[in-house]
Amino acid sequence: DSPLYLGDQAQLTLLKSQGVDYARIDYSVPLGPLGWRVGPNFSFLQYDVISPEYRSLKPRGKSYVYGLTAKYPLQRSTFMRSDVSFGYTERLFENKDNTNGLTSDYKIRVGNFGIRGDLADQWGLGGINRYDINIDMGRVDLNGSPNFSSDQSATGARTHGHYKKFSIDLNREQFLPQDWSLFGKIYSQWADRNLD
Description:
Structural class: mainly beta
Distance between the termini: 36 Å
Mean pLDDT: 93
Number of helices: 1
Strand content: over 45%
Order of helices and strands: EEEEEEEHEE
Helix content: under 10%
Largest sheet: 9 strands, antiparallel
Radius of gyration: 21 Å
Shape: globular
Oligomer: single chain
């Protein structure tokens, strides 16, 4: 924490597994006296499909994600916490295989508003309720991508263009005797068109 002695935070995530290389860096800094934090993020993913049945086709690809996020703490107390966030993300994707060469090359731009938090209670032996609600408004841009024509065909997914998405994630962790706990989760999302 605070690598520049500004109250800033930096986080680096690295993942390598068979067929997947992933890296992400997040950085944020306080803005003003009210609790706002703002900062950029960047991630890179490269994959190779390694299943034997795809050995000759060899599907592979990579993606780059750039983002900017602002967060504000709405409430902080012993039993309750909530935050509101605003963000903008640009995602670039490129996919290839040995038969067709470049199969897709497109970008997605997304603006996001979200609110998340948690609430502890004393029901039973106690528990924690968490929620995460998000509204996304974005655009899938397939212009110039080899899969544009198939996407726009009569049987295509028609993902190209503007979209709106709403998602809600609710979960509860219920504490039980002898250090056991029970976890339950509900997730739902709605979109006004097919998503990429």
